[in-house]
Each structure stands twice: as structure tokens, then as C-alpha cells.
Amino acid sequence: MHNIFKHILSIPRPAKRSILIAADSVLLIGALWLSFSLRLDNWYWPRGGVNNPIVLLVLFAPVIAVPVFAHFGLYRAIIRYLGMRAVWSIVKAVMVYAALWGLVAFLSGVEGVPRSVVPINAMVAVLAVGGSRMFARWLLRKIEDSVRIKHTKGGAGADAVGFHQSRMVIFGAGEAGRQLAIGLGQSRECILLAFVDDGTELQGRDLMDVPIISQEKLPNFVASHQVDDILLAIPSITRKQRSVIIEHLRPLNVRIRTLPGLIAMAQGKADYADLHDLDINDLLAREPAEPDEVMLQQQVTGKTVMVTGAGGSIGSELCRQILQRKPKVLLLFELSEFSLYTLHNELIDTLHHLTNEKRNHGAVGLVPTIIPLLGSVADESRVSDIILTWKPNIIYHAAAVKHVPMVEHNIAECVKNNVLGTLVMAKVAIERQVERFILISTDKAVNPTNAMGASKRCCELILQALAAEQNPSFEPMWDGKPSAQIPRTTQLAMVRFGNVLGSSGSVVPYFRQQIAQGGPITLTHQDIIRYFMTIPEAAQLVMQTGAMAGGSYMAGGASKGIGAGISADISGGDGRVSSEAEVYVLDMGEPVKIIDLAHRMIELSGFRVKDENTPEGDIAIEVVGLRPGEKLYEELLIGNNPQATQHPRIMKANEKLLPWSELQPMITILRIAAVNSDVMMIRSMLQQLVPEYQPDEKIVDWVYREQISEAEKLGC
């Protein structure tokens, strides 16, 4: 059987088309003969036999039908994957053919052709042509299934498990659920057992031959029918409602899954293989913060925009969000060649899609130019050349090293990239009179216990100090003379937010990988907690904060959707620079215990947590201890003086700053220490700059440890 199926599939496409045309020809001739028989109520045979002109008309039917069928695509479709759309094409093609044949028959003047034969022929031909294809589809898929079962049983050794079709329930009997069910019908790898819906008017009825049950009956149904997966098809509800439903499904020990696009599956563009675990955003229980779209467009539409660290998690999402709002030029500045190449290709594809979409609607408008630029933010010459060449209106500074343990092992590079890179970018932006400069910071900058957090707080201090200076001057970074005082027109802003779901180094993809490998999940501490937000939220937050810089924040709705941000208001009412620095904090909901997150991910993947109470569980959680520089909880405010704003979900607080005259000499000492890889001096300066910084007593920098080890061996 396997060889037969393989031989059928290996037949060249032209040969398959010829076989199909021959089969259709025979069926259409037979359908006409049967139509005459049904009309005349006896087995029809024309008078005079083959010499009767009616026989010629009957034999002429394929000549009319084949071109019509080809026009409607009946010879392009893959038989074993035919769907309802193909059936409708068959109906239309047969109707057109039947009408044309009837027209030819009556124009020919041949006697003995009843007019009612034409509609009868149309119905019989639909049944013959469509039925033959449906039968072939059924037969081929039966053969395919038997081959798959034989291959699975015979090809995986003695202990192999036979072919298993996943038993599924769709949560939601609305339009999305129906589309998903149609899409699943294209796959032979799953069986749809039921729909679940809270609509009492639907419960107890059948949809697409499967029952609709209530959520209360779901636990018993799952147990009695051995359900493997529950597919969520409820796109219209809020995230909070979705989270409540997910929590109710957790005890069922089945995998909760969803689709990237239900319509794509219904149209055959996606199938069962595209089903994936819950969207990462479903792990965030609160509603996403929506930005003010008008304000965001004012920031970037028709302007030249530069993003540093463009290949990173936040930087790449920023670029996507910016491109959607049609800048004039988008500059991608990135140190990693691979990341830059990948992002550039993605954005070019997006740009082509957007352009074609606009062209189809008759209005292309501005087509952004995307320019990929390799370079380091700490390279002042490269940065200056780029900014001088393209004169960006706004710079989003996302470039940073951020992985806490990695930074602890490479402290000098952290200072060079984060602190000095920010200073270079801010300095050149001010010198070249860039309109706005937005720094992306982190909640780890608040009371830091690691070098990464301390370095980001230094970045904040640099911008806060520069925001308080109307005419700053800069000491030379590497060589040369100090700059003269520069009238600053650049609006400076900073944005600070919590952990980002799905970003590089994020705990969620790490846990998901461990679950896929069968565990265990490794947790640094059972009491560790974190605030979370989504990548799109974080990117929109950055843009929203940039819109507020310089006093352009409009109360009463313009602030909707910002996350936790520091906005340095540099515009006083009389046009002078203000020294006030404000911290805006979004109500991000309650922080999440990471151990609860691990439990949630395990259970929603259809597994049970293996612990003392459930030794027969599937995946264990192991506590391995805090990593260097890691803290149990993060904070969003340095002080405890939050104040209400016009927006119910946003608070603000003032934070201390160092004057530029005091800060700059300390940054210079820090720079020299970083260049010389003087780890002890770096830690000392970070503690002076950020008094809240409480580093671990043990230094884990790789170079420092190796040098100390060598010195001890030499007896120094």
C-alpha cells in the first residue's frame, strides 16, 4: 500500500492532469446519458444508434467542459486537500458548462433534445464530478493515514507508539471557533470532539456535527473523552477575562493552545502544525496600556528617526512600530552584523507589504527609506558621521548590554557600552542639535545590586544632569580638547520599565525551552518576583515618553499607555531650561512571583508539577540560588513620593540628580577605569555615583579573577 501511494504521488503533474481530464470526460458523457434516461423515464438509447446527431452532442460535452473546468482551476487543485472552496468552484464550473452545452444543443438544431435535460444534466454532472473528487480525496487520505500508521509503528522500533490523533476541544463557538474548526478539518492529525461556550442559547446544540457544552461540564468531558488539547478561539474578550478562563482551565491537565491566525488556517494557509502554546502575552494578567496614536505619529511620521541597538528585543520592536507610522528615513544602528541583517530584511518585507497594501487602495503616500548602519555607540567618530549625514529628528537609544550575570562577569565592557555609549550619543545629539533624544532604562537602575543596574542609573544621571544645563560643555572622551559651551536645544527624556516578556534573556522563553526538553525548570529563588510588560507595550512606552519630553504632554488622554518612564522636562514657561526631572510610573499591576509563573507555564502545557506532594508529576522545579548581582525583587521608584496625575494609571515622582559640573569629572574617572579594566576602581566609582548600589562582596569579573589567580600563583 505504501508503495502504491508513493507511486501515485510520484506521477508527474501533467500525467495526473491528463488522468483527471479523461475521468471527467467519461463522467460527463455518462452524466448526459443518465440525464436523458431520467427525463424520458427509461434507459435511453438514441434512434439510429451512433449515427444519431445526439450522440455527437453527448461526445462533444468534454470539449466544452474541459476548458471551462481549467478556467475555474479544477485541474490545479490537490485532490487529497480539497475543501469547501474547491467544491464551490466545481459547482460554478459545472453550471457554466451545462449552460454552454445546452446553448450548443439548441443552436445546432438537433431534434429530440428535451429542454429539461439541461438542468438535469447540471445536477447529475455536479454529483458526478464533485462526488468523484470527494471519493478520491477520501480514498487518498485513508491510504495516507494507513501508510503513516504503518510507518510510525514499523519505523520507530519495538516500543514505538502508533499514530495518534490529538483529541481537541475548541473554547468558543463564535465565528473564530467555526473558522478554526474548518481549518482543523484540513488536518488528519487531530479530532475535534466539542465546542465550549458560555452562551446558554448554544449549549446542548451541535455545531459542525460536534456538541456545544458549557464550561461547567468541561472537566467531566475532558476526563471521559481523554482530551489532549483545548484551543482558545475567543479573540474579542479582554485580557483579564482571558486570564480568568485560563486559570479555570489549569487544573484540567491538558495543553492550552492557540493560533497565530484563525483565518489563515481556515483558508489553508496554516494547519495543525502551526498551533502553538499560549501567546506569551497571555501570561500578563492585566490589560495592555494603549498609547495615544496621534501623539505617536507626531513623533515619527515624515521624520528621520534613528534607533541604536536596533537589533535587540526593544530596539527591533521600536523599529517595527516606527515603520508602521511612516517615517521619512529609519536609521538602524547596530553592533551585531547578524542582528542588523535579520532586522533589515524583515523591515524591507514589511515595507513592501505596506506599500502594496496602500497601492491597492489607490494611495501610496510616503515610502520610508530604511538604512542599516553597523557601528558602536561608544565610537564618537562613527556616531558623529551618521548624525551629521542624515540629521535625525529623534534618536531612540536602546543600545545596551543588559544580561545581569553576563555583565557581572564583564564589568568594564558594560561601562564602555552602557555609560560611555550613552554619553557619546547624548553629546553628539546635543552638538548636532537633534530635536529629541530618548534613553531606554530599566527598573534595575533603582537601588541596584548589580553592575548593569548601576550603569543604567549612571546613564539616567547623565541625561538628568544635561537636562538641567542650558549650555553644557564636554571634556574630551578620548583625545583632544574640551568642547566649548554648546547651547542645548535637544529635548532629553528617559523611560524606565520592568521586565519585558519574550525579550532576549527573558525567563519565559527559557522556561518554555526547559518544558519542551522535559524539565526540570531551574529557578534562582522561590521568592523572587518581577514586574512584566509586553514588547509592544515597552516600545510604545518609549515613543510615548519621547512625545512628553519638552512639555508636549497633554493632559486628558495624551498619556494613555506609557509605562514607567522618566521624562526630563527641559522647557520652562519662559523658554529657559528647567532643572526639574520627573518620573512617570505606570500601574503595572501586581508583581509576579516567578515560581507561580513556572507552575502556570507547566500546567498550561498539559503537564503536572513534580514535587513532594505529586511525586508522579511530569516536570520538577529546582531552586539553584541567586545569580551574581541578582535581587529578589525590582522597584520602579527610587523615592517613595509618588503623586497622582491626570491619568488614573500614571503616577509621578521627583528623583535626585547630580549637577553636570560634579558628575562629569566622576564619569571621566569611570571611563579611565573602564579603559584600563580596573574592576576595583569601576566598582568604587559606581558606588560613588549611585550610593544605592549594593554590589556582592565577591567580584566575579572573568579577567579580574584570572589575573588574581595568576598573581597568587606567582606569590605576588
Query: Strand arrangement, largest sheet?
Result: 10-9-8-11-12-13-18-19-24-23
Per DSSP, what share of the residues sits in E-state strands of 2 or more residues?
Answer: 5-15%
Mean pLDDT over all positions = 78
- Biggest β-sheet strands, sense, barrel: 10 strands, mixed
CATH architecture of the largest domain: 3-Layer(aba) Sandwich
The fourth-level CATH homologous superfamily of the largest domain is NAD(P)-binding Rossmann-like Domain
SS elements, strand count: 24
CATH class of the largest domain: Alpha Beta
Please tally the helical runs, counting DSSP H or I stretches of 4 or more residues: 22
CATH topology of the largest domain: Rossmann fold
What is the domain total for the residues? 3
Principal-axes shape call: elongated
Low-confidence stretches: 152-163, 260-276, 552-581
Radius of gyration: 34 Å
Quickly give the structural class.
alpha/beta
